[in-house]
Amino acid sequence: MTDRTAAVTRETAETEIEVTLDVDGDGDATIDTGIGFFDHMLESFATHGLFDLTVSCDGDLEIDDHHTVEDVAITIGEALEQALGDKRGIERFADRRVPLDEAIAGVVLDISGRPYFEFDGEFSQASVGELTSHMARHFLRSLAMNAGLTLHAEVTGENAHHEIEALFKCLARALDDATRIDDRRADVASTKGTL
């Protein structure tokens, strides 16, 4: 197996971000975005996807959480796309459901190279800590657009903390499934010969 790692930086007038990602890691995470609950979700994402992930973000949190969450998602998406390279041998597709108490999240994805995003569900509270709940949906969209994923996600529940955490865990498990190498496959999983 080739080394499936990437390091990406992103600097704008709104954020300065450094991300490193190892798709075949142990779930180690060092996260600092300035948004406590978002840090917790990214740590959960790394743990449940078995990704080694570092994220450092200095964002304009004096305005709100939007630029930080969006730009971190863009940067992780770019890192994932780079780390997977030509995607030779990956499973490509995944379908997962993950519960957290009363909440259930579902993610169906295709590492297709054709970005698409659909979301079904509402969050039960407007925010969790300093994270605006709807930014969890925006994180998924921004990640999908920049990693080249077709991503369908859904969530139900009664507690936004549980709903968002179930989504991040579910996304991690689905990406872990879809990025796994199938030793029987010498090429990409496409009749086109490329993804």
From TrEMBL:
TM ranges are: none
Q: What is its main location?
A: cytoplasm
UniProt keywords, alphabetically: Amino-acid biosynthesis, Cytoplasm, Histidine biosynthesis, Lyase
User: What does the entry give for GO biological process?
Assistant: L-histidine biosynthetic process
Query: Top-level EC class, please?
Result: lyase
Q: Which SUPFAM superfamilies match?
A: Ribosomal protein S5 domain 2-like
What does it catalyze?
Answer: D-erythro-1-(imidazol-4-yl)glycerol 3-phosphate = 3-(imidazol-4-yl)-2-oxopropyl phosphate + H2O
- Which Gene Ontology molecular-function terms are recorded? imidazoleglycerol-phosphate dehydratase activity
* Protein location: Cytoplasm
- Similarity section: Belongs to the imidazoleglycerol-phosphate dehydratase family.
Instruction: Please give the name of this protein.
Output: Imidazoleglycerol-phosphate dehydratase
Q: Origin organism of this chain?
A: Halapricum hydrolyticum
